[in-house]
Design goal:
There is one protein chain. By secondary structure, the protein is of the alpha/beta class. It has helices at residues 19-26, 29-39, 83-86, 94-109, 131-134, 147-150, 163-169, 188-192, 211-218, 224-241, 259-266, 273-284, 290-299; strands at residues 47-51, 73-77, 115-117, 155-156, 176-180, 201-205, 247-250, 270-271. It has one domain (40-299): Rossmann fold (3-Layer(aba) Sandwich), CATH 3.40.50. Helix 8 links the parallel strand 5 and strand 6. Residues 1-20 are annotated as: Disordered. Residues 1-13 have a biased composition (Basic and acidic residues). This is Aspartate/glutamate racemase family protein.
Length: 300
């Protein structure tokens, strides 16, 4: 029996108000998600999450964590997705893309209305080269169908998909800042895949010996205080070197738990995978507020 169709017989202990913790101790992951979906049917259909093989602590605020979202979340792990395979300035091979496509198919079969991913570098898997991109690269790679074209459900691969809208919203003479996991590997190709003019973006990356990179690539123990201080320091430097930026996008999906501190430090709008996910889901499954319906009824 698939997790989606699993019959749920067990109940949390009487008085238990922590269903996710109870499930994590009692059932395999797929059954946990089925039970949470059953518990949250009033919250709408689930959003899918394409999880990579980077096994780290993911606190609330991280898109992998159900507590991050006001709607149900279901996950599919994509194999062959280590840190070095994902975080690259090279082109993803078709076989790599296909593993994500197959995972989106599984998510769709489980009822997901759309999918997001766990790494902003996957912007390179979103779409394909276009006429716009050919203006900036003299020899564009051969076109490959990407996730947006091959997946059965809509996919938003990266917080960077918000950048084109932000460039339209904020003054044209003010670039968008991007704080990334690794600026040496986040290049113009990632921006061009999304139709972004690299000249209108200012990128700053974490250092090679940063705590976050040591967590993801080196297996270091997660230290929230240290990570917060590191991210705040880096975003301050981003603003110091580029005082004309109008907003900041956090490329890395491990950064949103500290977005409020980051905003406090630079006093600018801050966007990330969380702001993207909320916007993305709100259009996938419209549920008008009850106050709207009451207002319409009262005027008839």
């Amino acid at each position: 029996m698939s997790p989606k169709a699993a019959k749920i017989d067990k109940e949390p202990p009487e008085g238990s108000d922590n269903l996710p913790e109870y499930l994590s101790l009692t059932f395999p992951t797929g059954i946990q998600e089925a039970m949470m979906a059953q518990q949250n049917t009033d919250l709408g259909p689930p959003l899918g999450f394409l999880a990579v093989e980077v096994d780290i602590h993911r606190p609330p605020g991280d898109p992998f964590n159900q507590d991050t979202w006001p709607f149900p979340l279901i996950r599919e792990k994509v194999t062959g997705t280590s840190e070095t395979q994902i975080v690259t300035n090279g082109d993803y091979e078709d076989a790599f893309i296909d593993r994500f496509v197959q995972a989106t198919i599984r998510l769709a079969e489980r009822g997901a209305v759309g999918a997001i991913t766990s790494c902003g570098f996957l912007a390179a898997a979103q779409t394909r080269y276009s006429d716009f991109q050919s203006q900036f690269v003299s020899t564009a790679p051969a076109e490959h169908a990407r996730l947006a074209a091959l997946s059965p459900i809509p996919v938003a691969t990266s917080a960077l998909v918000q950048v084109p809208s932000l460039l339209a919203i904020f003054p044209v003479n003010r670039p968008i800042g991007v704080l990334t996991y690794d600026s040496a590997r986040l290049g113009s190709a990632h921006l061009l895949q999304l139709g972004i003019d690299p000249n209108r973006v200012r990128v700053r990356g974490l250092s090679d010996d940063s705590h976050l990179r040591d967590i993801c690539a080196g297996g270091a123990t997660y230290d929230a205080d240290r990570l917060e201080k590191e991210l705040v320091a880096e975003v301050k430097l981003l603003k110091h070197h580029h005082p004309d930026i109008s907003a900041v996008v956090l490329e890395c999906t491990n950064m949103p738990p500290y977005a409020d501190r980051i905003q406090d430090a630079i006093q600018l709008p801050v966007y990330d995978v969380h702001t993207m996910g909320l916007w993305f889901y709100s259009g996938l499954t419209r549920r008008n507020p009850s106050a709207w319906k009451a207002s319409v009824t009262s005027t008839i």
